[in-house]
Specification:
Length: 192
């Protein structure tokens, strides 16, 4: 279990990296599930974003995508939870994540990985989370205590806006991968 931060400006393929991390070997995994927690107005991890079974969730939208036989609750599952901008407090998110951890463990398909994206949306869109300096550390501590590997995707603020969340992310990350746009041979690509 570790915490890795993927940091860079928007448009540098961070969502593609996160998608590969989240779903890379889930279909061949033995009873392991993945949780993707999104802060924003849409699912950034695209290919299976709004597919699967929609389930009730606290102040958010949840989709479960099973990679096993239909109706098998212990099959490897990708759980996507979307929190849209507005008032969402840290206690609500932490409680919901803990409930999902317990739910997956109870059906013998525990969470092995979690993607948190885009943490860069917390400052402009989630004021209660921004004002709680313990939110990101508490979330990462909860996941680490359960033996879960975590990837935090963070898009830097544009146009010189204040960066309220990056220090929290740096304090909890064991690995930080910086991505940036690179022009090469007349084309735009991404460097690490």
């Amino acid at each position: 279990q570790s915490v890795t931060a993927l940091v860079g400006p928007r448009g540098c393929m961070k969502a593609d990296f996160a998608e590969a991390f989240a779903t890379g070997d889930i279909s061949g995994a033995t009873n392991r599930s993945v949780l993707a927690v999104h802060f924003g107005d849409d699912f950034p991890l695209g290919k299976r974003a709004a597919t699967g079974i929609r389930r009730p969730h606290h102040m958010g939208v949840r989709y479960d995508v099973s990679f096993g036989a239909d109706g098998d609750p212990s099959a490897p599952t990708l759980i996507r939870v979307l929190y849209r901008s507005g008032y969402v407090n840290s206690g609500l998110v932490l409680k919901a994540v803990k409930e999902l951890i317990d739910e997956r463990r109870s059906v013998s398909s525990p969470l092995s990985r979690v993607v948190v994206s885009d943490a860069g949306n917390i400052a402009p869109d989630f004021h209660a989370l921004k004002s709680d300096p313990a939110f990101i550390p508490a979330l990462c501590d909860l996941l680490a205590s359960e033996g879960i590997t975590t990837l935090i995707v963070y898009s830097r603020p544009e146009h010189g806006a204040a960066d309220y969340v990056i220090e929290q992310i740096r304090s909890v990350s064991e690995n930080i991968i910086e991505v940036f746009p690179v022009g090469y041979a007349g084309k735009q690509t991404t460097g690490m």
